[in-house]
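Researcher: Let's continue the batch. This sequence belongs to Transcription initiation factor IIE subunit beta, and it's 284 residues. Same format as the previous ones, please.
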Amino acid sequence: MSLDKQAAAFTKSVQAQANFSGPRRVAAPTTSTTPAAASTPTTAPKRKRIVDRTKPVAPPIVYSQPTDTSLGTQHMMTQVHHAIQHLKQREVPQTPEQIASYLSIQMTPTLLQVLKQNERLTWNPAQGTLEYKPIHNIRSAQALLAHLQQQTTAQGLSVKELKDGWAGAVETIADLEESGDILVTRTKKDNQPRMVWINDKTLDIIVEDEFKAIWHKIVIPPPGDLPGELEKAGLKPTSVDPATIKKEVKGGAQKGRKRAQNRRVKVSNVHMNHILKDSKDLKR
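Model: Same format as before. Here are the C-alpha cells for Transcription initiation factor IIE subunit beta:
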C-alpha cells in the first residue's frame, strides 16, 4: 500500500468517527432559556431595582411651585418702612386704610399686625389708628418749655432728638431763643442749633448803671504784662507756675553757697587701726 492510500484511509476514518457528514446544527444562545429571549437576542434583560430601606427617602420635588426666596418678607418690611416714614412726616394718627391708600398697597392682616407690633408706632384700638412715636413726645413750644422745666439736671436737650417726629423744631427753637425763653448752643460750622436749655428768668439780675461805669473804667493790662502786675499787687497768677517766680532776698543780693563744714565722725573700729595704717602705707 502506498503512502497516499494510507493518508486517504486515515482521513476517512477520522471523518467517520466525528460524523462530519451529518447536517450542521446551530447552538442556542446561553443568555436566556425562555423562547421570547431566544426570539429577540438583541434586547438587553431588565434588572430589578434594589431599594435600600435604611436610607431616608427624599420627598418628591414639585416643580409647579416656586422656591421660597424670602422675597415676600423683604417686600413686606419695605412696606413697613415706607409706612413709618409716612406717619413720621404726617405727625397725626392715620387709619390703616389711609396708609394703604397713600402707599398704593393692600393692607393685609399680616402687614397690619406687623405695624401694630412695631416699637416706633403706637396703635390706638379705640380709634383704630396708627401714630408715629418720636423719641420725645414734643411737637409745640409749650410742650418743649414744659419738658425743659421738668428736667432735674442741667444736661440740656438734644435738638437732633427733637427733630425726630417734629418738622418745625428748628423754627420753634429760634423763636424761643429770640424771646429769651431758652438758651441755645449752636455748631460752629453752619450755626445750627445743637443743645437747648431752659432760661430761668428768676436768676436775672439788674445791674445799676453806676456800677457798670465803674466796671468799664478798670483798665486791664495786656496779657503779657498781667503776671507782673499781679505780682506787684501781691497776687499769684494762675497761669504762671509759682516755683518759677523769683523772690527778692532781704538784705541785699543772694549770697553764694557756704562751704560744707567737716563733720567729726566717731570711729568705732579702734581695734583695727594698726591694720588700716599698714594698708595705707602699702598704697603709698
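Researcher: Any comment?
Model: The first helix runs from residue 3 to 18.
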